[in-house]
Amino acid sequence: MLSSRWLVTGSAGMLGTDLLAVLDGVPGIETTAVTRAELDVTDPAAVRAAVAGHDVVVNAAAWTDVDGAEAQEAAATAVNGAAVRNLAGACAEQGAVLLHVSTDYVFDGRGTSPYPEDAPTDPLNAYGRSKLVGEQAVLELLPTLGYVVRTAWLYGEHGGNFVATMLKLAGRMDRLTVVDDQRGQPTWSLELARQLVALGRAARQGTAPAGVYHGTASGETTWFGLARAAFELSGLDPERIGPTTSDAFVRPAPRPGYSVLGHDRWSAAGLKPLPEWRESLAAALRRPAFARLTQPADDTPESE
Prior knowledge:
Blueprint: E1 4-9, H1 14-24, E2 29-34, H2 44-51, E3 56-59, H3 66-71, H4 73-94, E4 97-103, H5 126-141, E5 146-151, E6 154-155, H6 162-170, E7 176-179, E8 183-184, E9 187-188, H7 189-205, E10 211-214, E11 221-222, H8 223-233, E12 241-244, H9 277-285, H10 288-291
Parallel strand pairs: 1-2, 1-3, 3-4, 4-5, 5-10, 6-9, 7-12
Antiparallel strand pairs: 8-11
């Protein structure tokens, strides 16, 4: 068994927390977890010191405020672009594998069929542009040790996300309207964490070619379809949710209308793509953190 030391940045986030849980169950892996407060990824010297002694680095640290990036593009790019260059440079010096989590927002969202991994990029907002800068740094500085894993529509137990929001609103509102003109692939953060760990292990074994992979669930739906599925699988009435268009929810950053990604590259690494989105959603909703959201409040006074 090939032992290795892994560094996870952004370890307190939704994906980072799941990564730590997955890595904890893998024999032969020693994990170092660093939160945003513990490691300033925009500081090259701090990044170099953190990476030293590690074989695999998983970068789950990111500026994730899509709308905020429109007004603060330089700040977003510092975290999503320049900081990733710091990590890639440190990994190049160390000879370490870098798994960098990116986004579907590097595409223009005007497609009509799944974007392959080598499709031309053309971000339509500041967040997407900032993430593309990070991707380019990884591919430039780590041609044989750099892995860009694009994901989208992420939800999980350990952070704010669309699925949790819908289930919370179910207890407060009789009717909801949800956008039905944006298509994508709802992706469970725990499934993505498992895939990242599998990819990192394959990279260490020399069986996974470096480059771009798409880490999204198989299949596709709309936000409306996802909301209805979350209700149905949680035992709630999906008819309480009605469709609407993006025009009803104008936001500072334009959203891609089509965020469906292709998964052909996984076969080169000897790995299967992530499971179908509805199958993963059903499994996620059985987890305690989600199940609690649909349980009625207990107003019975505690006994003394």
